[in-house]
Amino acid sequence: MINLNVLGIDIGSVAVCIAEADRQKNIVNYSYVFHKGDVAAVLKEQLNKYDFSRISHIAVTSSTPDIIKYDGRYNNQVAIICAAKNRHENFKAILSVGGEKFGLLTFDEKGSYQSFKTNTSCAAGTGSFLDQQAGRLNLENIESLSSIAHSNKKGFPKIASRCAVFAKTDLTHAQQEGYSLGEISEGLCAGLAKNIADTLFNETQTHEKIIFCGGVSKNNAVKEHLASITGADIVVDELSHLYGAVGVAFCQIDEMADEPADGKAGTSNQSGRTSDIFLNKKTPKKLFYPPLELTLSEYPDFNSLQKYNYYSQQTENTNFVEVDVYEDLADKKKLNVWIGVDIGSTSTKAVLLGEKNVVLAGFYTRTAGAPLKAIRLILESMHDLILKNRSDLIINGCGTTGSGRKFIGKIIGADVILDEITAHARAACEIDRSVDTIIEIGGQDAKFTTLKNGMVTSSTMNNVCAAGTGSFIEELALKLGCAISDYSARTENVRAPMSSDRCTVFMERDLNHYLTEGYAIDEVLASVLHSVRENYLLKVATESNIGDIVFFQGATAKNKALVAAFEQRLKKPILVSRFCHLTGALGTALTLVDENVSNSAFRGIDIYKKEIPVTFEVCDICTNHCKISVAQINGEKVAYGFLCGRDYDTQQYVNNKISGFDLLKERKKIESFTASGKAAAKNKTGTGNNDFTIGIPAALHLFEDICLLGIFFRFRWGKDRYQQQLQRGSEKR
Length: 733
Prior knowledge:
The chain is an alpha/beta fold.
């Protein structure tokens, strides 16, 4: 006699979900495992835990790839609805939030399907987004983030959840401001909940009871914030993360309702063996790109006189510093040096620059959201290098650049605080004066800079999208089980299929598809590099402005295969310096030399030995209410975070509009003048005709909106007045 248990399988962008149900729709066994792109292997491993001698039918969701035999295939939304209706009563909506999608299903008073609204093609508000942030916070997984966030009983910072770029910046700032890991984790969950609510709910919607399902439903912090924002009763059960698998099992059971309990097995499991349910279908590979190899460019070997990792002797549980010694420093006496520091969102770098602009040593460590810890670790490793070599260095100056340049610059007493564009351009010109183009891909941003005669002529930066940055490469490498240090070697001379260049959601979807179709992981890794390049050239660079002497800077330039991807596309040599990962710090040090800094304010390398307490204050001088980071060093307070132009000792608002022109103030003046003019005219004549004119250029993208603007002004000021304005404009023309 055959036991008619049914196996439901739902494979999404991040996880393999399996649920075994008996004929009475009781779930007797289930699995939920992240597949990290290796779908077939993870599915086989999990299915081996099930007794196929008691399973007659297999049902799958529409998102599940065609790698196994099945008896029923059901739409994901249908499956979720089926699971919810079998497990709950009297609900008005189902909210599903998974790895790459979230959506809201609504129902009328009779429980009939009414509508479905989903997110756009962006990773914000999804499980993948939270997964990325958990990695950035050095948490083991998304479950750890959820647990830490839910246990937080204090306040939390506002963290942008629109894109990983903004989120990463806000994470850095929150950690600088001293928020705890629990507070930051809850801030992420609150931001994600708000993004979901803003996308799916409108102000007039009211839902008394909402069933919350999908992987993110197990995050209690997100659930509570959603309930607070929407005012709804958010319901989660113990199988909410498995609704896809549970639902298809229930759908299959419903179709088998007329079959006897001891009926025949379905076509998917005739033999009762796990191995026989997998399809031996091979799809021919479509490798679009040629092998990643350099044919026009010379590439450095990044060798140094001495290379080692330094671990802090003072602080436990910190990252290490990669130290490269480029010149012999042993027993050097009274050697003049300049220190350049680049405090980025993902890494902190420093160089010791000697006389004649010679790089003596380079230092590289992870920022990990704690720039103060990172700079102390850098200075400690620098001090260790000096002691080891019995050197007597005279530090003539210190400068900072990068996203944390102002805060850290004030703490260590920087003589120069430089923006990244200027710093990278200065370093590039030192290496090759004829450089006219700089490609710079950092951890969270990407920049495109053009130069002429050593001067920057234009610069652009990526905008609100994480695709095409170093962090994105690292995150995908992590998901595919590839160490970032092995990435280049694994992708050199490898052909690749084409994947999307638009967003992490699309890229991950394509990569999972290719892995399921049998493409090698190295081919998929190579595809990522092509996508990053295309994203950069589409969203950051102006391809027509790319010159002949092209520099590639930033730590990502140490990936030879990525450099080959740019060379292959641009058909030009791509120049990479052995100091590509240090160019921001190098440019800052070179600027110190250029400016002939004297009487340095640098507080000394030994500053790493001192405890530097950081407190936070809220400035109430103006309506900005800036949250100020205040560090205490040698009894002196150093503050950072003012939006206006004042410093900590100036107890009044300082206007930082150095141009002398404030658009908002000018608009208020016009409005005030118009209002007073109307009042005066009305008192004198009984009418108020002192109008002002708004000019709208009928060109470029505004041209397409002329009709919309016409409707707006017709309703805003009245049809007759609008027609008069049009007539006046026509007469003038």
